[in-house]
## 1
Amino acid sequence: MTTVSEKQVQAAKRNVKKAQAAARQKRTIANLPQSTRRGLTEQARKGRARGGKAGHALEDRNREQLYEIAKEENIRGRSKMGKWELIDAIRASR
């Protein structure tokens, strides 16, 4: 049997605290401002109304659909862009 040293216990506690702090800082929907959450809800509602199919306007498309368009147009840095940045980049490339 192995025994756990005091140093190992302290290191484990530090790691747990770091992981908890990182989890609190993540941008989850619950941590977003109310106005942003409301906007995401509106976008989701529009998507369901279209049956999940992309609309004609770029604003009607979700981020994944915009990412595919940006990929086809070979826009650099697209993986780090959000929805509205992708829309701006696609319009700039056209």
## 2
Amino acid sequence: MDELADLLGEELELPNIQPKDKDNITTVKYKYSGIRPTGPDSLIHRKRTYKQALKRQVMMGQYSQKNPIIIPNRDDRRYRSWKEQILPETNAVIIYMMDVSGSMGQEQKELVRLESFWIDAWLRKQYDGIDRRFIIHDAVAKEVDSETFFTTRESGGTIISSAYKLCLEIIDTDYDPSAWNIYAFHFSDGDNWSGKDTQLCMSLLSEQMLPLLNMFCYGQVESEYGSGQFIRDLENRFQSKEDRLITSRIENKEKILDSIKDFLGKGH
């Protein structure tokens, strides 16, 4: 996956992501960087033990070139030692949201699946640990596993705000924004139930979601049944005011790389 991420970064000239300041969140790692005369048998350093025994036998006149047998004793044993390294913790969570109403067919879901794969590859390259959460919605939102996310299709209408509310609940319950880098990706064909719900979405984004997120990305997939209005509403409200909110049109598979560059090209 690291090699794939490197290829993606080279192809799209993606900048490395600059995580939120995590100086106050740390993790301990152990690095074996020294040698000491005591320790458990599991950490014995055989080469250094052999060299110590050879040195001792030479100094004591016990070494014979004709019969070069080296027999370490207990005092010759050498063991690996370790040092604690206190490192800043850089964890991230990706919250994927997708419209699964009747206008979102299998072709649209395949575009989302392919794009999500490459987004995962790049973000895993940038962070020590990645959580992934999945939300599907039509008129009602619910959290699901990844397989359900990419295969479910419903027949109801679309209320986008239901997904944003559930996203906020997940963040509030599991992901303290001071300790996590949080990315939200929403994919839809641009239909929403009503202009009133669209206005609610704008309020949820500006007042509650964006202050918590590294980035909010909205990808609009092409569908013959979708109006495509939601991306225009987002761009009218945020495009020149908020660089953490990024929109992209995903018309077909050939546009996936362009969309990924739209989303990840700013290095948030």
## 3
Amino acid sequence: MYAIATLNQMSQSEFTAALGSIFENTPEIAHQAWLARPFENVPQLHQSMAAIVKSMDEAAQLKLICAHPDLGAKFKMAEASVQEQSTVGLDRLSATEYTHFQQLNQAYKNKFSFPFIIAVRNHTKDSILQAFGQRLENSKEAEQQQAIAEIIEIARWRLLLAVEPI
């Protein structure tokens, strides 16, 4: 864990190395956030990073969305994603559950052309499955906005785990 004071004293490259994984495979967000130092606390740091994401153009936001893995996937993914998915048992799906998740992931990607994103730490396996069904009814625009909101929430959790509270 990092102290906020330590993060504030880091060079831009050190800061980016420390927090570059907060947003899945997108260290540019931490790189830009460094410019807003000093941060008083984790919520302020999170707000700064979220503002960067919200100010990205649509292509950059889609790239960020597409950097996220499918839920329940059994391929290499960022360590933070592995840990998050394991909190609700997505790393221990039965064969039937795995097939169901893969079918939902594919249906979602077929409709929206990007992966289903949800802040799993706020859910259970059942509530994730319920959300899949509900969100498949949304428009692409609504889902893109929801995906960005979920990514920002995922980042909040990751920061809470990476930075000491004051």
## 4
Amino acid sequence: MDKKEKHERIKRTLKIVGPIVTAAGLILAVVGFVSFFSAFGSGGMPSLFWCAFIGLPIFVIGLRLTMAAFRREIATYHKNEAAPVVNEFAEDIKPAVQSVASAVRGETAAEGRICPQCGEQNGADAKFCQNCGSALQKVCPACGNSADAKAKFCDNCGHHFPE
């Protein structure tokens, strides 16, 4: 038996044993507490209160076993809950990041784009230089995103632009 089969067998066992131990601990704890609180009405001593002292630790052990057995399922659930939130956040901040990137490249609204061939100032939305006609931006064939004419890779999908 290889490691993976052994691991899966242990997980299957824990998925059965964990809930059983949890239920047994819960039943013992309930019996112990019922005995304790019913003794108040009758004025006698609780006879099964010891069950609560045994049941509570068994209950916790059962919960831990069950959590260990379902760790992958729990982590997958958390991943599936978190990924859309991260993606939404990325979409929300994308314009701000693009604005900062444009500022770093020296493309402000007042200045516009600088031609990589002749150095001429062009409008911010210009696609070709008004002086020499060179392309000021590239369109990625993989995703359609526009990139700076000097870019070697698309900043959206990482596609390599040929020289």
